[in-house]
Automatic annotation (TrEMBL):
Lineage of origin: Bacteria, Pseudomonadati, Pseudomonadota, Alphaproteobacteria, Rhodobacterales
UniProt name for this protein: Enoyl-CoA hydratase/isomerase family protein
A Pfam family this chain is assigned to: ECH_1
Top-level division of the source organism's lineage: Bacteria
Species this chain originates from: Tritonibacter litoralis
Record keywords: Isomerase
Length: 271
């Protein structure tokens, strides 16, 4: 569950300042409320964004040790072996950095991650996906999925490994393998069976239907539903600040304890 309930959020009054121009040049805008620290990141694709391998991953600094790893394989953020391998590497590097307090997983595009189809039914893709899922699930740094749009299949499995998941209205969630022919990997199969209620998984996987954010919240796929993109990032960064305030060693020990069983099953499935 999220550390803040959306229904309990107070109205936020915002103003802009000269700092907005500086932050906009980095690809997002900060707005500061008059009575509390509430940050909103408004994403735009900027030519000056920090480029990473193949330009399909970008890092965004949000201050206070909060770092966003942004999926940049536009416009659909379809996953591939190379992207997943680089994603796992970046998560491992961020987790090892003492300067990083919280990791956000986001997307600058309309979709969070769709478009992965049966063309990825290869051993290389499944191995890369398994590695990415295990790396993110075992990450000792708090992780938050900031789901700004539609998400399906392996993209949906990625966010299930995160500690906190925030979605937005006008987004859809699905496992559409019965339609697309996309197969689940061994580790992915273990993950969804451990993280989702069996009746929820049965309904999603065997019908391939897309559900909305309210149903996704009720099913435990996401924790908070934001009204729009501004609210999405306000909630995401407020959640991140709450996680950053926790003692890292206590968080790590607790996370390791509650995830040990599932993690062992995932690693066994990977072989």
């Amino acid at each position: 569950m999220g550390l803040f309930l959306a229904s309990q959020e107070p109205a936020v009054r915002v103003y802009t300042s000269s700092a907005v121009i500086t932050q906009l040049q980095r690809g997002f805008t900060y707005r500061k409320s008059l009575d509390q620290m509430a940050w909103t990141a408004l994403h735009e694709t900027q030519s000056g964004a920090q480029a990473m391998t193949q330009d399909w991953l970008n890092r965004r600094e949000h201050g206070a040790g909060i770092v966003e790893l942004q999926l940049g394989n536009g416009p659909s953020n379809a996953l591939s072996p190379g992207l997943l391998q680089d994603f796992a590497q970046q998560i491992a590097e961020l987790d090892a950095s003492e300067a990083v307090e919280v990791i956000l997983i986001g997307s600058p595009f309309k979709a969070f991650s769709v478009g992965t189809d049966s063309s990825q039914n290869s051993d290389a893709f499944k191995t890369a996906l398994d590695t990415a899922l295990i790396t993110l699930f075992s990450c000792q740094t708090p992780t938050i999925a900031v789901v700004n749009g539609d998400i399906h299949g392996p993209g949906l499995s990625l966010i299930l490994t995160c500690d906190d998941r925030i979605g937005v209205t006008k987004s859809g969630y699905s496992y559409d393998g019965v339609h697309s022919g996309l197969e689940m990997s061994a580790v992915e199969t273990v993950l969804v069976n451990q993280m989702l209620d069996q009746n929820v998984l049965r309904r999603l996987a065997l019908t391939g239907q897309t559900i909305g954010p309210v149903a996704a919240r009720n099913y435990g796929i996401i924790d908070i539903v934001a009204e729009d993109q501004e609210d999405l990032w306000m909630y995401a960064l407020r959640e991140a600040k709450a996680y950053a305030a926790l003692a890292p060693d206590r968080f790590s020990k607790t996370k390791t304890c509650i995830r040990a069983h599932t993690l062992n099953l995932m690693r066994s499935a990977a072989g």
